[in-house]
From TrEMBL:
Gene3D superfamilies: 3.30.300.30, N-terminal domain of ligase-like. Pfam families: AMP-binding (PF00501), AMP-binding_C (PF13193). The keyword Ligase applies. This is Acyl-CoA synthetase (AMP-forming)/AMP-acid ligase II. GO terms for molecular function: medium-chain fatty acid-CoA ligase activity. It comes from the Bacteria.
């Protein structure tokens, strides 16, 4: 089986032939009905079975719950088949789906239900009491449906007569939120169909592939994997959760050919003990966001498959990728080039209208094209700040490489301002994580009365490594051989784990809050007042 990704930045003449997710499901039920669509553990369902189930549930939502076009239906479930079934059923009913992190407690859940105006919540027995309690406390009129008994059986297995087109709103997708409560990206059917179409094309996927995902379904990744499966009529395997110790065993067991990982996942996978069966798998393509540069070649060698960088956001789907033929990108740190339907610029954040900054100089990455969110739900000011004159301002600092690719250097807001120097946290974290003793690193700003801010590193160590001052000193000294002196962490604190967002990124606000409430031992390595 060969890979046939799109040519970098080539113009795309045609749009996806089917403009909606519901239309894609109907087409797959018609032309590939008996093919496997979804696999959860030892259970699987065909395209025809899911099409019939979602139609029955859509009728139930309309006739019993009174769901009208545009109503919001929240889904608060772990990774079970009822999640994609509920999603597709609500879309058939003309509703807008609100994915809710199933680990949310009262405050977060109350915010999402209030902000979205959800009328129905699909959940399970473990959470039905919490949802009902929050709805009562907030005075919300919400129907709570336990999916174990969804009541859909008596209803027709044909889709209800609801008009859905490319511009119909499909999701209110709440971002993880770095400060305060999250914002909801308004995502249309066109967004999801185009995202599945682009991802399948860039990865060269077809009906003989087996996709596998382990992230929470409330997050983007299993949803766009579902769109890919619908696009190419391939099965999607959904794991209950990500576990570094069992992930590759599941890849082997299910004969997965394509996976997407991100955040800390590649580092955690690589730091598992090597096994004789590592290369005994069917993988032929791995997409990853933020591949550790120093590990890139070793990741490919260990599991015998090409790993390529892909960049995107909830707001914009997929934006940049490295082609699988581009072996020169391995270990380069390049994010690649734009997908065929996107354009990118690198601009001065302080004066984006002045045009692009010179190649090699850092600037903010801004993006235009499709897919793209319609804006933030009930947040006109935030929408106007992020979407300006058709360009999405990502907040990511990047440089254009000599080969034309884009390389990330940090976040505009994820910086330490040490005296007169700006320190990109991502750069320091990458250097720290090259140390074999470090599983994961998070760098934050620590207030300093002289310099304004100092560099502090939180480090999670590999099992068996002593979390003492000598280890901290040695790690910092090694980092100093690669970093400018002003970038080397002054403070080091060891942690057993990191609080993470659903996208497996470290939640730095939660980390700093935890450190303030439960302070650990902080090692201070001599004030540097230069």
């Amino acid at each position: 089986m060969s890979l046939h990704p799109f040519v970098d930045a080539a113009p795309m003449a045609a749009d996806p032939t089917i403009p909606t997710l519901t239309g894609l499901l109907a087409q797959r039920a018609a032309d590939s009905g008996e093919r496997e669509f979804l696999r959860f553990g030892d259970w699987s369902w065909t395209f025809a079975e899911i099409d019939a189930w979602t139609s029955r549930l859509a009728h139930r939502l309309i006739e019993v719950d009174g769901v009208r076009p545009g109503d919001r239906v929240a889904i608060m479930l772990p990774n079970v088949v009822h999640w994609p079934v509920g999603w597709l059923a609500a879309l058939k009913a003309g509703a807008v789906v609100v994915p809710v992190n199933c680990s949310y407690q009262r405050a977060d859940l109350a915010f999402v239900l209030r902000d979205s105006g959800a009328r129905v919540v699909l959940t399970d027995a473990e959470r039905v009491g919490l949802v009902a309690e929050v709805a009562r406390a907030e005075g919300l009129e919400v129907d709570v449906l336990d999916v174990a008994e969804d009541g859909s059986e008596p209803f027709p297995a044909t889709a209800p007569d609801r008009v859905v087109d490319a511009d119909t709103l499909a999701n209110l997708q709440y971002t993880s939120g770095t400060t305060g409560f999250p914002k909801a990206c308004m995502l249309t059917h066109d967004y999801w169909v185009r995202l599945g179409w682009l991802c399948s094309g860039t990865a060269g996927l077809g009906r003989d592939d087996v996709l596998l995902t382990a992230q929470p379904f409330s997050y983007m990744d299993p949803q766009w994997n579902t769109a890919v499966a619908l696009t190419v009529a391939a099965p999607l395997v959904v794991l209950p959760r990500f576990s570094a110790s069992t992930f590759m065993a599941d890849v082997r067991r299910h004969r997965a050919t394509f996976v997407y990982v991100l955040g800390s996942m590649p580092t955690l996978l690589f730091k598992q003990p090597p096994a004789d069966e590592d290369r005994d798998n069917a993988l032929r393509a791995v997409f990853c966001s933020a591949i550790p540069v120093a590990l890139h070649a070793q990741l490919e060698e260990r599991w015998g498959a090409p790993w390529r960088e892909v960049y995107g956001m909830t707001e914009s789907g997929i934006d940049l990728y490295s082609a699988f033929e581009d072996t020169a990108s391995v270990g380069s740190g390049s994010l690649g080039r734009p997908v065929p339907t996107k354009q990118v610029r690198v601009v001065d954040p302080a004066d984006p209208a002045a045009g692009e900054v010179p190649a090699g100089e850092p600037g903010e990455l801004v993006i235009s094209g499709r897919p793209m969110m319609s804006g933030y739900w009930h947040r006109p000011d935030a929408t106007a700040s992020t979407l300006r004159d058709g360009w999405l301002h990502t907040g990511d600092l990047v440089v254009r490489r000599p080969d034309g690719g884009i390389q990330i250097v940090g976040r505009i807001k994820d910086m330490v301002r040490r005296g007169g120097e700006n320190v990109a946290c991502a750069e320091v974290e990458a250097v720290l994580e090259r140390d074999d003793r470090v599983v994961s690193a998070a760098v934050v700003a620590e207030p300093d009365e002289v310099l304004g801010e100092e560099v502090k590193a939180f480090l999670q160590l590999r099992e068996g490594v002593r979390a003492d001052r000598a280890t901290a000193q040695d790690i910092v000294t090694r980092a100093g051989a690669e970093l400018a002196r002003f970038k080397v962490p002054r403070y080091v604190e060891f942690v057993a784990d990191f609080p993470r967002t659903p996208s497996e990124r470290v939640s730095k606000p939660a980390l700093k809050a935890r450190a303030a409430e439960q302070p650990g031992t902080t090692h201070d390595f001599s004030p540097r007042r230069s």
